[in-house]
Design a protein that fits this description.
Layout (H helix, E strand, L loop, with lengths): L1 H8 L5 H16 L17 H4 L3 H17 L1 H14 L7 H12 L3 H9 L5 E8 L2 E8 L13 E7 L5 E6 L3 E5 H4 L1 H6 L7 E3 L8 E4 L1 H12 L5 H16 L5 H9 L7 H21 L1 H22 L9 H16 L3 H16 L8 H12 L8 H12 L3 H8 L8 H10 L10 H6 L6 H10 L1 H7 L2 H12 L5 H11 L8 H22 L4 H10 L2
Parallel strand pairs: 1-7
Antiparallel strand pairs: 1-2, 2-5, 3-4, 3-6
Length: about 550
C-alpha cells in the first residue's frame, strides 16, 4: 500500500520497478517444494520467525497488488475504505476483507484469492501461438523441475505490439484458447508485421511466471532491442528466463542470448536485476563448465561495462538518485566478475583512502567495491590489504562502514585468511547481529573452508546465537554448494541436530543446493553453449 501512495505523489520515482525486487524474492522462495502458504498454521511458537519471510511479506504484498490491478485502482480504493470503516475499532480476518471487496466489486474475490493465500506456490503460464490462436496453459512452477498439483484462478493481462490497449481475463481452469483478433484489433493487424509481439503479465502486476514458445520469445527479443517494452516488463522477462533456466525449462544458451539484448540498458532497476542474474550465471558456470567459465564472465562483463564506465567511480553534479544507487551495484559486480581494470582502480583508490580518510576519491557509496577489489589480491603471504581493512573497521564509528568491511573479509580464496575472518566473529569486536555480513561475503573458493569451520563450531554457534542468526549461518554457507553429494552430507550432519527454529531454513537451503546440481547437469548437456558464448564475445 505504501507504494501506491509514493507512486501517487512521486510518479517520476518509478517505485513499482523497485517493488519488483520484493516480488522476485517472493517468487524465488515460493518456487521451492519447501515453501509455505501465506496463511499457515504454526505448530511451535519458535517457528514464527521463519514464517515472517519473503512469502508473508513479499508474496503478500504482490498478490494484493495483483488484486488491486485486477479490480481497478478506483474500485479497490473505495472497497478498501468501506472495509476499514466497517471494521474500525474491531478485529477482522482475511475472509472479511475478501467479502467486502467482493461485495463492492462484484468479482469472485474470495474464490480467487483463496487460491493464492491458502496454497503454496504459483503457476507458470505456458503460451503458444498456433495459427490464429493463442493457447494458455497453467502449471505449478517449481525450481526443481518437477510438476506440482496446484491450480490458481489467475488474473491474466496481455498486451500485443503496444501498451495502448490490453486484454484482461481470468484463467479459471487448466487452459484457455484465445483467437488473436479477440485480444485487440491491433494485434490481428500486426501479426504479420515487424511490430508483432505478445507480452503476458503486463507491467508484472501478476504473481506468476510466463514461458513463451520460440516464435513469441523471438518477437519479445526484437521488442527488447527496439526498446518497445516498459521497464517492468524488461525486468519480468529477464527474471522469468533466469528462473526457467534454473529449472531446466530453458537453456543457459538461450538465457545468454536474451541477456545480450540488454547490453544498452541504462535504467537502475533493470540493471540491478541484470547484475544479480549475471552473478548467478557466473557462479553456476564455474562449477558446470570450468573451462568456459572465464569466457562467460567476459560476456557478462560486456553487458555491464558500458554503463559502469559512463557512471565512473565519482558522483556527478545533478545526477539522479537512481544513478547514485546504480554505481556501487555495477562496480561490485564487475569486481566479483574479475574485471581487472575495475579491480586495479578500486585498489588504487583504497590505498589513497587508507592514508587520507577524508579523500573525495572514495565516498561511502563506492567503498565496498574498493574493499572487494583489495581482497582479490589478499593472501597469507600478502595480507597488507586485509590488515588495512581491519584498521578501517576498528577505527570507524559508523555501523554501515563496519558492515561493508565485514562483508568483504571472506571474499578471497585463501584458506587461512578466511578462517581468521570467520573466527573474528567470536571476538568481542563483532556484534552477534553483524555475523551475517561476514557469512554473506564468503566466496565460492572459500565455501569448503567455511563448511568445515561451521561444522567444527556448530555447538558454540547454536548455543550462543539467536534463532535468526543460526538460520543465517545455515542459509549462507549451505547455498554456496552445488552438488547432490554435498546436499546429502548436509542432511546427515543436521539429522541429529535439527531444531524447529531452523528446520524450514535447512530444508529450503538443501533444496536450493539440489536445484543448482540439477541446473549444472542441464548446462553440461547443452550442445550450442560453447559456440554461443564465443559468438557473443565477438559481437560489438
Amino acid at each position: 500500500m505504501s507504494h501506491l501512495a509514493v507512486d501517487s505523489f512521486f510518479p517520476q520515482w518509478n517505485i513499482w520497478t523497485q517493488l519488483l525486487s520484493d516480488t522476485t524474492a517472493g517468487l524465488k522462495l515460493d518456487s521451492l517444494a519447501e515453501s509455505h502458504p501465506i496463511e499457515v498454521e504454526i505448530h511451535h511458537a519458535r517457528e514464527v520467525d521463519e514464517i515472517f519471510d519473503a512469502i508473508s511479506y513479499d508474496k503478500g504484498a504482490s498478490v494484493i497488488r495483483m488484486l488491486q490491478n485486477y479490480l481497478g485502482g478506483e474500485h479497490f480504493q473505495k472497497a478498501l475504505a468501506s472495509y476499514i470503516r466497517k471494521y474500525a475499532y474491531s478485529n477482522a480476518k482475511t475472509d472479511d476483507l475478501w467479502a467486502v471487496l467482493e461485495e463492492k466489486s462484484g468479482e469472485p474475490v474470495k474464490n480467487m484469492m483463496t487460491t493464492w493465500t491458502r496454497q503454496q506456490g504459483y503457476p507458470v503460464i505456458n503460451v503458444k501461438h498456433k495459427g490464429n490462436y493463442l493457447e494458455l496453459e497453467q502449471a505449478q512452477f517449481l525450481s526443481n523441475g518437477s510438476s506440482g498439483s496446484g491450480m490458481w484462478i489467475v488474473p491474466i493481462t496481455l498486451g500485443c505490439g503496444s501498451y495502448d490497449t490490453r486484454k484482461n481475463l481470468l484463467l479459471k481452469g487448466k487452459s484457455e484458447k484465445l483467437h488473436i483478433k479477440d485480444i485487440t484489433a491491433q494485434c490481428c493487424n500486426r501479426e504479420k508485421g515487424a511490430n508483432f509481439w505478445i507480452k503476458l503479465n503486463t507491467n508484472q502486476t501478476g504473481f506468476y511466471r510466463v514461458k513463451y514458445d520460440d516464435k513469441l520469445t523471438a518477437a519479445l527479443g526484437n521488442a527488447l532491442q527496439a526498446k518497445k517494452l516498459s521497464l517492468m516488463d524488461k525486468i519480468g522477462i529477464l527474471e522469468d528466463s533466469h528462473a526457467l533456466s534454473m529449472a531446466c525449462k530453458q537453456t543457459l544458451t538461450s538465457l545468454l542470448r536474451l541477456l545480450y539484448a540488454y547490453r544498452e540498458e541504462t535504467d537502475y532497476s533493470v540493471l540491478s536485476h541484470l547484475t544479480t542474474v549475471s552473478l548467478s550465471i557466473a557462479k553456476v558456470s564455474a562449477d558446470a563448465t570450468p573451462g568456459l567459465a572465464g569466457d562467460i564472465r567476459q560476456v557478462l562483463i560486456k553487458l555491464l561495462l558500458s554503463r559502469a564506465e559512463t557512471l565512473g567511480w565519482d558522483p556527478k553534479d545533478g545526477e539522479s538518485h537512481l544513478d547514485a544507487m546504480l554505481r556501487p551495484d555495477l562496480l561490485d559486480a564487475l569486481v566479483k566478475l574479475g574485471h581487472e581494470k575495475t579491480i586495479n582502480e578500486g585498489v588504487r583508490r583504497f590505498r589513497i583512502f587508507v592514508h587520507d580518510r577524508n579523500t573525495s576519491l572514495l565516498p561511502p557509496d563506492t567503498r565496498k567495491a574498493a574493499y572487494l577489489a583489495v581482497m582479490q589480491n589478499v593472501s597469507s603471504s600478502n595480507r597488507s590489504g586485509y590488515d588495512d581493512l581491519l584498521k578501517v573497521y576498528r577505527r570507524s564509528a559508523e555501523a554501515e562502514e563496519k558492515e561493508h568491511v565485514l562483508g568483504t573479509l571472506c571474499s578471497c580464496g585463501d584458506k587461512n585468511i578466511v578462517l581468521e575472518s570467520l573466527n573474528f566473529l567470536f571476538s568481542n569486536e563483532v556484534r552477534h547481529q553483524d555475523a551475517k555480513y561476514v557469512i554473506q561475503g564468503i566466496s565460492n573458493e572459500a565455501r569448503e573452508t567455511a563448511w568445515v569451520w561451521l561444522k567444527g563450531n556448530w555447538d558454540r554457534i547454536s548455543n550462543t546465537s539467536g534463532d535468526i542468526q543460526v538460520s543465517d549461518f545455515i542459509r549462507y554457507v549451505i547455498t554456496l554448494f552445488t552438488s547432490n553429494e554435498k546436499a546429502a552430507e548436509f542432511s546427515r550432519f543436521f539429522a541429529a541436530r535439527m531444531k524447529p527454529t531452523f528446520e524450514r531454513t535447512l530444508k529450503q537451503s538443501i533444496e536450493n543446493v539440489q536445484i543448482s546440481a540439477r541446473w549444472i547437469q542441464g548446462i553440461r548437456s547443452e550442445p550450442r553453449l560453447v559456440q554461443t558464448v564465443h559468438e557473443l564475445l565477438q559481437r560489438p
